[in-house]
Amino acid sequence: MQTTPALLPEPARRVAAWCAVLLLVAGVAAVFVWLCVVFKTAVTPVLLAILGAALLGPLNRRLLRMKVQKSLAAGLTVVAVLTVVGGATYIVVAALIETGDQIVASLRQAATDIARHLGAAGTSLDDLAKNARTLLEKFGGTAASGVISGISVVGEVLATAVLALLLIFFFLRDSDRAAGALRSLVPAGTGDTVEAMARRAFEAVEGFMRGTTLVALVDAVLIGVGLLVLDVPGAVGLAALVFVTAYIPYLGAFLSGAVAVLVALADRGVVIALWVLGIVLAVQVIEGNVLQPMVQSRTVQMHPAAVMLAITAGASVAGVLGMLLAVPLTAAATGVLGELRTRYGADTP
User: Are 219 and 246 in contact (CB under 8 A)?
Assistant: First the structure.
């Protein structure tokens, strides 16, 4: 029987099949992102609750091993969340308020000194410093994509925080039912695979949150001690800034380090500024070569290029909040892909 010749050669059919798969995946991802943006009021507390549960999940499990009742253990963990987050927020805000004027004055003085040496090019830096508040307001409006401002923003933040805390309580209390609930939503034949993918994703997020918090604390302490030894003004506030910005990998360290160097340049001169730059670079070297491998050796490792792309994409979708959530979400996606590769990937010859 005569067979009809194929319309396209085999390589072209393979390329077409892969293009169709990529288009399908891109379409599903685009719809998912669009739905998250549309329902961001509900999605944001869920994501924050997952991050909170991942960070303090070990505490909840320890309480359960001590035979503490599930609801009580979850409640104590939520209290721990309030204590840790509230305490850290108070310390950071108090430090920044106490030394904020001094830091801003030092930055303006640094801009003036640079303007004196660079002429017209430096004048623009001085203008930038003088108009920092206006620029930050414009940036915040752009990054937030026109989300409600003023008092309504405060109300929205409080409502999001309260809902996230309630979700953390329920996530921790009913964590033992998560696997069964997930299996009930998928076909019976894929239950094991979906559960394994979910576990790998959560483990990746859990490892990222614990590792990033520890690294941020070490960075803030080391840089803060160095600034105190060098008698740089606003050392406590700058250390707090280092801790907060550490949750934005690479970019956060660059921003906080640049601010510290400029403050030192304005108040202590070029020599001290160079010492501060050396301390910041040394801490970053220690972080990249010692802390990160030690802390995150058992979690998903992500290439710096993937992290930067994730941060850029997150900022374009949801502004500052997107930058903060981009990396843990990418870690979760990497964990899922790793599980799929383990189960279905071809053996390496």
Answer: yes
SS3 for 3? coil
Degrees, nearest 5: CA angle 168-170-176 = 110
Q: Residue 158, class by beta-carbon neighbours within 10 Å (0-12 exposed, 13-18 middle, 19+ buried)?
A: exposed
Structure tokens at 127: 């203008």
41 vs 195: CA distance, rounded Å: 27
The pLDDT score that the predictor gives to residue 307 is 74
Tokens, residue 348: 């390496």
H or E segment and range at residue 24:
helix 10-38
CA dist 112 and 126 (Å) reads 6
Q: Per this entry, what is the length of the chain? A: 349
With a cut of 70, say whether residue 91 has pLDDT above it: no
Q: Determine the Cα–Cα distance for residues 264 and 180; give it in Å rounded to an integer.
A: 56
Decide if 253 contacts 284 (C-beta within 8 A). yes
pLDDT at position 77, please?
83
Q: Give how far Cα 95 sits from Cα of 234, 246, 290, Å.
A: 8, 17, 29
Task: Please give the Cα distance from 213 to 231 (Å, whole number).
Answer: 26
Model pLDDT, residue 23: 92
pLDDT tens for 203-256 read: 888 887 887 888 888 888 898 899 889 888 778 778 878 887 887 766 777 788
Are residues 323 and 311 in contact, defined by beta-carbon separation less than 8 angstroms?
Answer: yes
How many Å apart are CA 192 and CA 182, to the nearest integer? 10
Alpha-carbon span 242 to 244, nearest angstrom = 6
Where do we find the tokens 């906080």? 256
> What value, to the nearest 5°, has the Cα angle with vertex 94 and ends 242 and 114?
50
